[in-house]
Design a protein that fits this description.
Chain lengths: 95, 486, 491
């Protein structure tokens, strides 16, 4: 499966990555090289094979419903690029 | 051997009998860093003041006659994707340039409990994505054996720090070979434990189902000791397994009688450098001479491992790295037109090329219409790869082969060709996909003087057997005693 | 009813999100308490800082399981978590941990009753997920920026998705009221729409005959509905709007033309937000930081046993065991199990369930509401109420005087016996004596008698007055009225 520059623009939008238009062709080319390589998987017979998401055979790991200490507001917001008083500030999001 | 070139076991002995203080030791390593790191560039940050304060605290504790931890006074370098409360943790990325986590990684807490000295943060490929430590936003780490060559990656800083004797121990993380490959390139021991053996709490995630933290050291004993300290259950990581941690150092010198070594044909095919092949085969002969049996085994899906990995790992990464968006922490672009633009520009500026490439690939593999063809397919082949190992381990104790197809490559050699870089991980990746143990150790040198790594793979939670197997080789050969001249 | 006369059939499916009554969040130990100062109930996990990991809250899973069982759902024996990826500033990781293709429960139903009858609304699935934080939009200075509070981020939610089986505003209301009652009764959620612990999105369209064909309008998902009444109004508004819109553009439903709209309550209308096909591609995939959950027979059994009696079962029992009318059963059960226990204890002690029901629904509830009391701290215990009711029956005390006694019961520590005595209500009126008084009244008030006979029903009061006066207002009015009527007829 090959992708074109438009596909790359769409994926970049989904991934929230800004690309310079000048980089696009080169990037598309590299992307297609990788896709061409991974397309080798198509030749593997996997009918009825259960996907393996985790190599671990464990399940039902829970914690008890107990409240632990939260961060202070100052500690929580210490790394915020745009702290606005008690909040994280972001550009206007219009509903 | 110089003080800083010795192994941890030796240094602990010296300190215990009072011949050496933790402060003296720390100063010795700090001096080595000052002398050589300008060239090697293994460290992103070494806080001399904090290091000496920690060392003084250990000496004071010893003087007061208090019980000391198992790593008392021993410097341990940390890959800079391990969080330490209040200290900048960058992942070698611009996007986390100023990020100070309000928490400490589980493994780092374990080091603190054992009175180790947290000795600086090491360079890596940005977010551990790479095989050469060239993808760091800050610096390129060079190979201590030859500065024109890469240290490998992504834990290149950790491996180079140990190889250059700037720290006796280091922690790295391994998602597709990121401990074993740089350990191999730098001629030291590096282990990726079984998935779930070590808590990932506080390790900045690359690919959650593959990431595992592990030790790097000069010899097997030191790796065993560090693994003993960091392994074990942590309720903060649901995927860390609740089972006892063996005392790896205790059994280390017991050779394994009747050892059967599986030798997969697929690890010795075209693309493997003849010098590497010959050296690894020589190592296998050493085992034979110790009474081990070599047995051909088959891992037929090895050829698909790189493809599976670059889909599974990038898919997980595309989601794991979505959080770097300039809202709650990390880099935010100065100018933008809208919320979406703020996201895409901050991320476009903050992430390097390789990270962006992987986020894109992972996003694509998960996107509507491609999920089944790529992501689901990759997970199915992942199961086949695991099945291969299960079958192999039913016939042998450990599997052996090279760590990489070649010894260290030159800086810049592969950086413009992502695919060829990816293919250099072909022998290390399947271990992460299957979740099993993998270790690399030095087994010889190329004619040009670069180390060659031997990889030992063991089944889940078989760290003890892998370590003992490695130790058998050390006793016969002594490659672990070699240090580069800087 | 407007729905039955409307020229279209309404089709509604509801997505209900309820916050679960856990103390801590779904994947971290931060408190879920409502109304704390902004950004004071967060930690590295719910802020989505790098390297920290989610750990499942067992209670959240168990509450989800209880709710699913109460909704007659199948419980999945194997369930997993997935990541739903989309960017929004109130979602710190930019993915939500949710459940995609293997939800914890599926295919259940909820039975609802409206004037149109009883029906089962199918439930497609109920699954767990984490809540997002809250956005504050600066609406003063032309909306320059928004602000984020993450206190709510990570609160456990159960999303309950119904089949589009709902076909009137009444049914919308009945479905939501029943879900709220059910989840409150089993202790899963407090379902306060004002506080956002119950949130509803409605998928609405209509179908009707048009030029010989049945047509269906494009589905609209209506959000921002903050009360049950608002959902009802929004659904009705939207149905009419879609019907009208069709006659303008003739656009029918297809898989890609679903849109999202926002309900503007004070204007009583919806506003389209975005077309769904432009919306995110969520790129769901299994959450690698969490392990799967396997539910075995024993766990399922424990969960079933923890449910207790459900509202529908209780209503059923009240009809059978107490012979109550359906209306009474519905009203009592609506008040919650503590109130129902009170009713049942009273009914048993009095031996007259209908009387107990009347009193509980009227006098008890009224007094509780007037005084802002809850049943658990209502000082007229079921024992005390029962002894009062026994005396009311015994002395045939009329309603006005009964209420006086009841208020005294609340305001003093006196026993019902003492109060009745104090008020002088412990009198048994001999019917013969009352008949004599009635006859006297008739004899002395010819005009009123004539008025009654001429059909002026009100005039009967004038005949009762002297009797009540003679008995100091204590005579049972029903009885007096009955005797009066008998006497007037025979006169």
């Amino acid at each position: 499966m090959a992708v074109n520059a438009n596909d790359i623009r769409w994926v970049a939008h989904l991934a929230r990555l800004e690309f310079a238009e000048s980089e696009l062709d080169h990037f598309t080319e590299q992307f297609n090289d990788i896709l061409k390589y991974v397309d080798q998987l198509k030749s593997v017979k996997t009918d009825g094979v259960e996907p393996l998401t985790h190599a671990l055979p464990i399940h039902n790991v829970f914690r008890d419903d107990t409240v632990t200490t939260s961060l202070s507001r100052d500690d929580a917001l210490a790394n915020a690029p745009d702290r606005r008083g008690e909040f994280y500030g972001v550009p206007a999001v219009l509903e | 051997m110089e003080l800083h070139q010795r192994t941890v076991s030796e240094l602990l002995n010296e300190m215990e009998r009072g011949a050496l203080s933790a402060v003296e030791l720390a100063r010795s390593f700090l001096n080595t860093v000052k002398a050589h790191d300008g060239r090697v560039k293994a460290f992103l940050n070494v806080n001399e003041e904090s290091i000496l304060a920690q060392a003084q605290a250990v000496d004071a504790k010893r003087q007061r006659g208090e019980k000391l931890g198992r790593l008392a006074g021993i410097p341990v370098a940390l890959k800079d994707n391990l969080c330490l409360k209040g200290e900048v943790t960058t992942c070698a990325s611009k996007i986390l340039e100023r990020f100070k986590p309000p928490y400490t990684a589980h493994v780092v807490e374990r080091l603190q409990q054992e009175d180790a000295i947290l000795f600086g943060k090491c360079n890596l490929d940005e977010f551990a994505m790479g095989s050469s430590t060239e993808n760091s936003a800050y610096q390129i780490t060079s190979n201590p054996w030859n500065s024109e060559y890469t240290s490998g990656g992504s834990s290149g800083g950790s491996a180079a720090a140990v190889a250059a004797s700037m720290a006796p121990l280091a922690l790295g993380s391994d998602t597709g070979g990121s401990i074993r490959q740089p350990a191999g390139f730098c001629g030291i021991v590096g282990m990726k434990p079984t998935y779930g053996r070590v808590s990932r709490y506080g390790l900045v995630a690359f690919a959650s189902s593959l990431d595992q933290i592990g030790p790097l050291s000069h010899d097997i004993r030191d790796t065993a000791l560090l693994l003993e300290v960091i392994a074990g259950h942590d309720p903060r990581d649901t995927t860390s397994v609740n089972r006892p941690v063996p005392k790896y150092t205790a059994s280390l010198d017991d050779p394994i009688t009747g050892l059967t070594i599986g030798v997969p044909n697929e690890f010795f095919q075209k693309g493997l450098d003849p010098e590497v092949e010959q050296t690894v085969r020589t190592a296998l002969k050493v085992y034979e001479s110790c009474g081990a049996k070599l047995k051909p085994v088959s891992l037929p899906n090895t050829e698909y491992a790189v493809s599976v990995y670059y889909i599974v790992a990038t898919a997980e990464a595309s989601s794991n790295l979505a959080r770097y968006d300039g809202v709650h922490y990390g880099h935010r672009a100065k100018q933008f037109d809208s919320m979406i633009h703020m996201y895409s520009r901050s991320r476009g500026q903050g992430f390097g090329n390789e990270v962006q490439r992987r986020i894109m690939l992972g996003t694509y593999a998960l996107s509507s219409g491609y999920y089944d063809a790529y992501y689901k397919k990759a997970l199915q082949v992942r199961r086949l790869i695991k099945n291969d190992f299960d079958a192999a381990f039913s016939q042998c104790d450990v599997v052996m082969g090279p760590v990489t197809p070649t010894a260290a490559f030159k800086i810049g050699e592969k950086s413009s060709d992502p695919l060829s870089m990816y293919l250099s991980d072909i022998y290390t990746i399947s271990c992460n996909l299957a979740g099993i143990v993998g270790m690399s150790m030095n087994c010889g040198m190329t004619k040009s003087g670069l180390p060659i790594g031997l990889q030992i793979l063991g089944k889940e939670f078989d760290e003890e057997k892998v370590l003992r197997t490695g130790r058998m080789f050390e006793k016969e050969t002594g490659w672990h005693l070699k240090r580069p001249t800087l | 009813m407007s729905q039955t006369t409307a020229p279209y059939r309404l089709v509604v499916g509801l997505e209900v999100h309820v916050q679960l009554l856990t103390k801590s969040k779904l994947f971290c130990g931060c408190t879920t308490q409502f109304g704390l100062p902004p950004n004071t109930a967060t930690c590295p996990i719910c802020i989505g800082m790098p390297g920290v990991l989610p750990v499942m809250n067992r209670t959240a899973f168990e509450l989800g399981m209880k709710a699913a069982l109460a909704l007659n759902c199948n419980i999945a024996r194997h369930t997993k978590w997935d990541r739903k990826n989309y960017y929004y500033p109130d979602l710190p990781k930019n993915y939500q941990i949710s459940q995609y293709d293997q939800p914890m429960s599926y295919e259940g139903y909820l039975e609802i009753t409206t004037e149109a009858g009883t029906k089962k609304v199918g439930i497609i699935r109920a699954h767990l997920e984490e809540d997002a934080g809250k956005m504050m939009h600066d609406e003063s200075g032309r909306g320059k920026e928004s602000m984020v509070d993450l206190n709510r981020a990570g609160t456990p939610l159960l999303e309950i998705v119904s089949h589009p089986h709902i076909s009137s505003g009444d049914e919308v209301k009945a479905y939501l009221e029943e879900i709220r009652l059910l989840l409150r009764e089993i202790g899963v959620s407090d379902c306060e729409m004002q506080e956002g612990s119950l949130r509803v999105d409605a998928n609405v369209n209509v179908n009707f005959e048009h030029e010989g064909n049945t047509v269906a309008t494009p589905i609209v998902e209506v959000k921002n509905v903050n009360s049950i009444r608002a959902v009802e109004r929004a659904v009705q508004y939207e149905a009419q709007r879609q019907f009208d819109q069709f006659h303008v553009d003739h656009i029918v439903m297809n898989p890609t033309n679903k849109v999202t709209a926002k309900w503007i309550d004070d204007q009583g209308r919806t506003e389209v937000l975005r077309r769904k096909e432009e919306a995110a591609d969520y790129r769901y995939f299994p959450e690698p930081d969490l392990v799967t959950v396997e539910v075995d027979d024993a766990w399922l059994e424990r969960s079933k046993n923890s449910l207790g009696e459900l509202p529908s079962q209780k209503r059923e029992r009240y009809l059978k065991e107490y012979q109550l009318p359906a209306y009474d059963a519905k009203q009592l059960v609506l008040q919650g199990h503590a109130f129902c226990d009170y009713f049942e204890q009273t009914a048993k002690a009095v031996g007259d369930a209908k009387l107990a029901s009347n009193w509980c629904q009227n006098q008890v509830m009224q007094l509780m509401n007037d005084r802002g009391l809850e049943i658990k701290d209502f000082s007229v215990t079921s024992d005390r109420l029962a002894s009062l009711l026994v005396l009311i029956k015994k002395y045939n005390i009329n309603m006005a005087r009964s209420k006086d006694a009841f208020v005294q019961l609340l305001e003093t520590n006196d026993t019902a016996e003492a109060i009745i005595k104090k008020l002088g209500l412990d009198v048994t009126f001999d019917p013969a004596m009352l008949r004599d008084l009635v006859k006297k009244s008739i004899a002395g008030n010819a005009k009123a008698v004539a008025d009654v006979k001429a059909g002026k029903g009100k005039a009967i009061d004038a005949l009762m007055g002297p009797v009540m006066k003679e008995t100091k207002g204590k005579a049972p009015m029903d009885l007096v009225r009955q005797i009066l009527q008998e006497e007037l007829q025979s006169a």
